[in-house]
What does this fold into?
Amino acid sequence: MILLNSDVFPARPGWVSALARFRAARPAAGAVGAKLVYEDETLQHAGMFHQLAPNGWYWLNQHYFKGLPRDLRAASAAREVPAVTAACVLLPTALYDEVGGLDPGYIFMDYEDSELCLRVREAGREVWYCPDAELYHLEGQSWPSAVRQRASMVNAWRHTLRWGRQIEAVTARFPAAAPAG
It folds into this structure.
């Protein structure tokens, strides 16, 4: 199955096949996320990582290479990542059902994708970034940024309370910021 936000559009044909081939070649892969690009041709998503907020009270979801050029060499490399956004993610329907799908308790559906990826990992599967599937994402343009920021803080707090220990373990395995290349 593919989860796809309504504000995501293909950059070129073949993205579904690219995701399916990628996952088929990696039997341990549970969730596979695509490269997402803003309309100004900069990167929105090349995988997600967790970063402790400056106050140290909760974990934030961050995107590798966000705002850098879409053709950045490092963002063109497939790799296992801590999490991927559900704006575009492929995973087996049976696995989605097994881990309980997306939790609707997050306000405006922010951080539910990170939780899904943590549950995929708990089920013994990996989370991967596939740069060969490339789409545009008009991230969050349909609602005010002030509302989104407040909702995101509440969701980050909830996410940390539920998953803080698991996030620490995943963060220990992956660098917080991959080198630009």
